[in-house]
């Protein structure tokens, strides 16, 4: 059993925007034991390269996941020119804390809920094709995006009619997932530009086979500059309170 139990259900790239932050903050309390269950693994080195962000989409690193079309949908944070997930910023620096336990490739399948008082008492998860059950003395914290809604419904919390269709015992009838909003994304805009003189003769366009060279790779690794640090997919970003 853990004094405090913490769980994440996200991709291998980002490990959820909030999970790493929460695990970092909770483990500051030395007499609390934190278990972070992560469905994915560690980020690959290629995920650091800003210009290759699109290369990782619809790959094993993001579970090749697609949502339904939405009117609402970011490349992510950049630190010292390279992409930086919240895992790298908040989890990697504290992963050796003795009270923080991180289990990767641990796919949580259900939150265990006491039917009498409706309190979460643990979870079950699958790792290495084996089923495990973990119970918490304090609390279970879900931190994720799309999969959190799915997990709640698999655990009996969600729209009663939908759960009954799937023969899932209803613990609490709630409109889980009804207000899910994805990141804004715009695609298909095509336009011509006139390359400035300093970009000639190659031009100002981003063509991966042309910019991904030994020279650009060495500039990225040694000098922290060059075309691989470009952000061609997200030059501007804003959070608007609507």
From TrEMBL:
One of its GO terms (molecular function) is oxidoreductase activity, acting on CH-OH group of donors. SUPFAM superfamilies: FAD/NAD(P)-binding domain. Residues 72-184 form the Glucose-methanol-choline oxidoreductase N-terminal domain. Belongs to the GMC oxidoreductase family. This is Glucose dehydrogenase [FAD, quinone]-like. The lineage of its organism: Eukaryota, Metazoa, Ecdysozoa, Arthropoda, Hexapoda.
């Amino acid at each position: 059993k853990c004094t405090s139990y913490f769980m994440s259900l996200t991709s291998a790239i980002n490990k959820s925007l909030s999970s790493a932050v929460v695990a970092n903050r909770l483990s500051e309390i030395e007499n609390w034991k934190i278990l972070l269950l992560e469905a994915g693994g560690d980020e690959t080195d290629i995920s650091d390269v800003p210009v290759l962000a699109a290369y990782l989409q619809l790959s094993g690193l993001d579970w090749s996941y697609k949502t339904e079309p939405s009117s609402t949908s970011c490349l992510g944070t950049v630190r010292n020119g390279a992409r930086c997930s919240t895992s790298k910023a908040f989890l990697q620096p504290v992963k050796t804390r003795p009270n923080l336990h991180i289990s990767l490739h641990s796919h949580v399948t259900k939150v265990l809920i006491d039917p009498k008082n409706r309190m979460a008492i643990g979870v079950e998860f699958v790792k290495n094709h084996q089923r495990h059950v973990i119970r918490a003395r304090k609390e279970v914290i879900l931190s994720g995006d799309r999969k959190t809604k799915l997990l709640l419904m698999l655990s009996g919390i969600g729209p009663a009619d939908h759960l009954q269709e799937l023969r899932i015992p209803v613990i609490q009838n709630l409109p889980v997932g009804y207000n899910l909003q994805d990141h804004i994304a715009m695609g298909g805009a095509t336009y011509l530009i006139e390359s400035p003189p300093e970009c000639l003769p190659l031009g100002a366009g981003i063509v991966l086979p042309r910019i991904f060279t030994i020279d650009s790779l060495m500039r990225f690794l040694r000098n922290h500059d060059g075309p691989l640090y470009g952000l061609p997919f997200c030059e501007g970003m804003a959070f608007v309170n609507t």
